[in-house]
User: What shape does this take?
Amino acid sequence: MPTLLVVGGGHASLPLLAHAHALADDAGAAVTLVSDQPELWYSGMTPEWLGGVYTRADVTVPLGPICERQGVRFVQARAVALDRDAREVALDDGRRVGYDLVAFDIGALNPGRDDADHAVRTKPLWRIAELGRFLDKTAADGDARCLVVVGGGAAGTETALNVTARPGLGGLSVTVVEPGDRLCPELPARVGDWAAETLRQRGATVRLGTRAQGTDPEGVRLDGETLPADAVLWATGSVGPPLFVEAGLTVTDRGFARVDRGLRSVDDGRVFVAGDSASVAGHEDLARIGVHAVKQGPVLRENVDQALRALAAGQDPAAVPLRPFRPYPVSPLLVSTGGPSAWWVAGPVAVRAHAVLRLKHAVDRRWIDRYRDGASYDGRWDARAASGHR
Ligand SMILES: Cc1cc2nc3c(=O)[nH]c(=O)nc-3n(C[C@H](O)[C@H](O)[C@H](O)COP(=O)(O)OP(=O)(O)OC[C@H]3O[C@@H](n4cnc5c(N)ncnc54)[C@H](O)[C@@H]3O)c2cc1C
Assistant: This one.
């Protein structure tokens, strides 16, 4: 019976975990998940959790129950090294887990990590829970506090939009610092204009053309001044985890592991990588967004299954033909604003409408419900949208 090790319970690996019992059906496979968190934070809904629309339970998928249902051994630990000769992954608690096949879905990290020592980082996404605690405290005691969001890309902007719409945060001042000349520089210009206009209407400060140098206990260091902050969200893009390059895998200049179109490492037929930490042949410029990780999920499941079957039959997994990952021709994004409308962005097209928010909630709920075993929602978003809250 071949052994499969899944490292990282992320957006791309959920389909694999949720169907683990059916992998390599004839021979069966012994499956282990190593993930450093007990749950997945679903990126589509997390900004609205910060905005008070959803509860934490609404936006997370507990990994334990999925593993239990599927006969997967769940080891909650952090993988720190990959030893491809020994076919083992070393964990931060000193243990080592062996594999015949390993699938990584460990997401990305924020670049400039040393600069963000006093900040809440957005990668991996679970770190943002710390910002949630800060917001709860501010709402509870009503004290005046400053939040600075470093990075006005889609993630930082969507977070700022939801935070500024959250009821009960009258004492909070929010500043977004972005080195470019508009917010959301990766999206059509009108989206950046909508975002800046909405944030300013809500009393937030948007500082464009401003690069943060780092953080210290007082706040955010800019060129020649320090922006005072009680909390800093560091939302500055993505780099790959160091583990791949240390294991001798080929990586891009940003550290993402190079995989073929079937998500198999270009160096090692026993290693698969999906989600933000993979650079897929032919699609190297794909944005690091959950939409792509989610779309890779079924491909990862099918191809890992094929490779396990090959191993069970004594064949070389590197030689198995795989299903290619085909991304959306343009990256479709549904951006919540904290208000009753959301923005639908696809390539050069951007639309804002109340119907987009309803669509977003339906799409998000449909995805997460698949993995939450029928857990239900209390419909608070509908009440909030209907009340016209901004
Ligand atoms: C604020 C914010 C909002 C966003 N909103 C959207 C959105 O609306 N739509 C969209 O498409 N994208 C969005 N994104 C991007 C999205 O979060 C990522 O693209 C997505 O999470 C990537 O999924 P993944 O499967 O690669 O990894 P993840 O889902 O991040 O999962 C990786 C998992 O592996 C674990 N892990 C990491 N390292 C290790 C290790 N060494 N050992 C063990 N476990 C490990 C992590 O803790 C994590 O649980 C947003 C990002 C942010 C920061």
